[in-house]
Each structure stands twice: as C-alpha cells, then as structure tokens.
Amino acid sequence: MRLLSFLIIFLMLLSCKTDKKETPLKNNVMPQRGELSWESQIFLGNRLFSEKTCITCHDVHKSTIGPSVKEIMDVYQAKNGDIFAFLKGRAKPIVDTTPEQVAIMQANIDGFLQEISDEELQTIATYMQHVDDINPD
Ligand code: HEC
Q1: Is residue 19 part of a domain?
Q2: Is residue 12 part of a domain?
Q3: What pLDDT, on a 0 to 100 scale, did the predictor assign at position 112?
Q4: Which residue lies with its CA nearest to atom 12 of ligand 1?
Q5: What is the CATH number of the domain that holds 84?
Q6: 19-56, pLDDT tens digit by residue?
Q7: How many A from CA of 55 to the centre of ligand 1?
Q8: Site residues for ligand 1, CB cut-off 6 Å
Q9: Residue 92: its pLDDT value, please?
Q10: pTM given for the model
Q11: What is the pLDDT, as a whole number, of residue 9?
C-alpha cells in the first residue's frame, strides 16, 4: 500500500515535469512583426491608422478631406489595387484622381509616410482591407 501511494506521487511529479517541458521557451519570446497573427496585424493597423493621422483625413464611413476607408476599399477591391504599393509611391491613385486631391495625398507619401516602416504600412493596408470586419455598417 505504501509502495503504491509512493508510486502514485512519483507519477504525479513526473507528469508535472513533462508538462513544463512541453512549453518551449520560444513561446515566451515576443514574435517578430512578420509573424504577427492576423488579429494582431489588424489591431496594430487600426491603431497606426489613428496614430499616424490617416484618420484625420479618412473617416471609416464618410468622405471628409479624403475619401472614406470604405470608399477606398470598394475601388481597390473592384480594380484589384495594391494599397501597400500606393503608399510606397509605386502605384498611381485610382480612387480620386482630381489633381488637387491627388496632390494632398502625394505630399503625405513624399513626406511623413517615408518615416513609417514597411511592416507598419503593411499592417495599415491589412487593416484597411478588413475594415468591414471590425466596422460593420
Ligand atoms: C491631409 C489629409 C490626408 C492624410 C493625413 C492622409 N490622406 Fe490618404 N488621401 C487624402 C486625399 C485627399 C486622398 C484622395 C486622393 C487620392 O485618391 O489619391 C487620399 C487618398 C488615399 C488613398 C487612395 C489612393 C488612390 O488610389 O486614389 C489611400 C489608400 C490613402 N489615402 C491612405 C492613407 C493612409 C494609409 C494615410 C495615413 C498613413 C493617409 N492616407 C493619410 C488625404 C489624406
């Protein structure tokens, strides 16, 4: 009887130990930007859209100084546009092509957008692509 309880305790201790082993150390390490989950990217993109002042000209639903995010996404989806390429200055505007409006956004691309990293621009683009998921009408 004594031996049996001893054995049970021993087995319990052993299982505790293997439990710990199953949690590899790398789970405690912060993931790189590229490894961010889809949810984290959208969360971060949403935050950057405000922090980087995009929101001051782009409301989600209604046109203000610039077209709304919904309007931009409708055109980009219909024309299979590449937001990241546009924000990098590698693709022409396809939403509002009136010269005065294009000049406003172009000044951003040549100006403060240069300070935003590719990873951050990518998360902003991902957020814009999924704006419907987190901002239903
Ligand atoms: C000072 C106002 C202003 C700010 C700030 C601003 N935009 Fe714009 N944006 C505009 C205007 C005006 C247009 C319309 C011209 C155009 O479509 O290129 C536009 C257009 C766009 C378009 C559509 C481009 C196309 O294909 O026509 C995208 C995408 C965009 N902005 C993203 C952003 C992002 C992302 C940010 C923040 C990093 C941002 N904008 C900040 C004014 C602004």
Answers
A1: no
A2: no
A3: 97
A4: 66
A5: 1.10.760.10
A6: 444 444 455 555 555 578 889 999 999 999 999 999 99
A7: 10
A8: 52-54, 56-58, 65-67, 72, 83, 86-87, 93-96, 101-102, 104-105, 108, 113, 124
A9: 98
A10: 0.80
A11: 56
Q: Nearest C-alpha to atom 5 of ligand 1 is from which residue? A: 54
Looking at the structure of the chain, the number of domains it has is 1
Best probe residue, ligand 1, of 57, 117, 118 (max atoms within 8 Å of C-beta): 57
What are the beta bridge partners of residue 63?
A: 58
Asked if residue 80 is part of any domain, the answer here is yes
All residue ranges of the chain with pLDDT < 50 are: 16, 18-25
Q: How far apart are CA 88 and CA 108, in angstroms?
A: 10
Asked whether residue 5 is assigned to any structural domain, the reply reads no
Domain hosting 52: range is: 37-134
